[in-house]
Amino acid sequence: MNVGRSGYRVFSANSTPACTELAKKITERLGVELGKSVVYQESNRETRVDVKESVRGQDIFIIQTMPRDVNTAIMELLVMAYALKTSCAKNIIGVIPYFPYSKQCKMRKRGSIVCKLLAAMLAKAGLTHIITMDLHQKEIQGFFSFPVDNLRASPFLLQYIQEEIPDYRNAIIVAKSPSAAKRAQSYAERLRLGLAVMHGEAQCAESDMTDGRHSPPAFRPSCGPPGLELPWRHQAPFPGIELPIMMAKEKPPITVVGDVGGRIAIIVDDIIDDVADFVAAAEILKERGAYKIYIMATHGLLSADAPRLIEESAIDEVVVTNTVPHEVQKLQCPKIKTVDVSMILAEAIRRIHNGESMAYLFRNVTVDD
Question: For residue 10, what pLDDT is reported?
Answer without folding.
Answer: 96
